[in-house]
């Protein structure tokens, strides 16, 4: 992965910020690369998972697609990143977060291809058949049944990181995650200094949204909706196992690709450009 050049203020050249505003709803941060409108193919909307924000897409993915003439936009859902709604995040449910994603999708002049990570992938699946999407890429995503199986399995197989994340969520405080825990989240290939920097940006997630994610909801198969879908996962992702990703691919009759040595946060992984290139190739084949 090429080195990231940051300005003195910490921003990344070629990535700019704007806002999605709606009456009586929190304003949502957007980070944008590439043309303001138009560009090569459909616009791309990147959606983060639990505890993160639009920032996780800004280092590699947004510049990568922007340099190739794509309109690439990452959104921070309410209470995440620089979006409004932080004071009310604890009471926000899945419907609130899905509504934010729907607003972000509706902010484009044409339907975007949605690239969604982890919990964000579950939100995107809840919107199949309800929001106008040209395509869907699920990256390290929760499956169609949300955390119903993933949550209990995590508590058994990864009790340390599960308990640290749960404590931060319940107490609404930033958990102190040691380096081993950060490597579990970001992958052992991520350098120590980067893992610590990324970990410092994680926030407590909405306990209501996480609790609701354990209760399965109806999800329309992408096949039935005629929505081209791709499932991507890291082979060494210890939060969303490859077998879980295969369940998602089977449910949606989607193509899938696994990345050896890839962790859960593929967009922050040393393999990030390889993952982005896989998406770019899939978009070309699908003429999206």
List its salient traits.
single chain; 288 residues; eight-stranded mixed beta sheet; disordered N terminus; 14% strand; alpha/beta
Major beta-sheet overview: 8 strands, mixed
Amino-to-carboxy terminus distance: 25 Å
Discrete helix count: 11
What gross morphology would you assign? globular
Structural write-up:
An 8-stranded mixed β-sheet has the order 1-2-4-3-5-6-7-8, sandwiched between helices. The protein has 11 helices and 8 strands. It is α/β, with parallel strands linked by helices. Helix 4 (150-157) packs across helix 5 and helix 6 packs across helix 7.
Write the layout of secondary structure elements.
Layout: E1 16-20, E2 28-33, E3 44-47, H1 61-67, E4 72-75, H2 94-106, E5 113-117, H3 119-126, E6 135-139, H4 150-157, H5 159-171, H6 179-186, H7 192-201, H8 207-212, H9 222-225, E7 229-234, H10 242-252, E8 255-259, H11 272-286
Parallel strand pairs: 3-4, 3-5, 5-6, 6-7, 7-8
Antiparallel strand pairs: 1-2, 2-4
Helix pairs in contact: 4-5, 6-7
């Amino acid at each position: 992965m090429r080195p990231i050049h940051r300005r003195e203020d910490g921003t990344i050249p070629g990535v700019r910020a704007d806002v999605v505003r709606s009456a009586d709803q929190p304003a949502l941060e957007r980070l944008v690369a590439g043309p303001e409108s138009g560009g090569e193919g459909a616009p791309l909307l990147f959606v983060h998972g639990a505890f993160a924000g639009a920032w996780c897409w800004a280092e590699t993915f947004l510049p990568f697609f922007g340099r190739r003439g794509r309109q690439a936009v990452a959104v921070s859902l309410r209470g995440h990143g620089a979006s409004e709604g932080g004071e009310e995040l604890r009471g926000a449910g899945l419907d609130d977060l899905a509504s934010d994603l729907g607003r972000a999708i509706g902010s484009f002049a044409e339907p975007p291809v949605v690239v969604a990570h982890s919990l964000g992938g579950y939100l995107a699946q809840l919107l199949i058949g309800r929001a106008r999407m040209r395509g869907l890429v699920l990256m390290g995503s929760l499956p169609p049944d949300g955390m119903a199986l993933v949550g209990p399995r995590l508590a058994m197989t990864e009790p340390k990181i599960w308990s640290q994340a749960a404590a931060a969520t319940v107490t609404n405080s930033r958990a102190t995650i040691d380096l081993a825990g950060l490597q579990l989240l970001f992958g052992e290939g991520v350098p120590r200094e980067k893992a610590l920097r990324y970990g410092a940006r994680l926030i407590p997630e909405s306990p209501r949204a996480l609790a609701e994610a354990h209760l399965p909801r109806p999800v329309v198969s992408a096949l039935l909706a005629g929505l081209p879908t791709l499932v991507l996962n890291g082979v060494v992702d210890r939060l969303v196992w490859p077998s879980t990703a295969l369940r998602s691919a089977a449910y949606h009759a989607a193509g899938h690709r696994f990345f050896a040595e890839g962790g859960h946060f593929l967009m922050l992984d040393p393999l990030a450009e390889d993952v982005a290139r896989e998406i770019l190739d899939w978009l070309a084949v699908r003429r999206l």
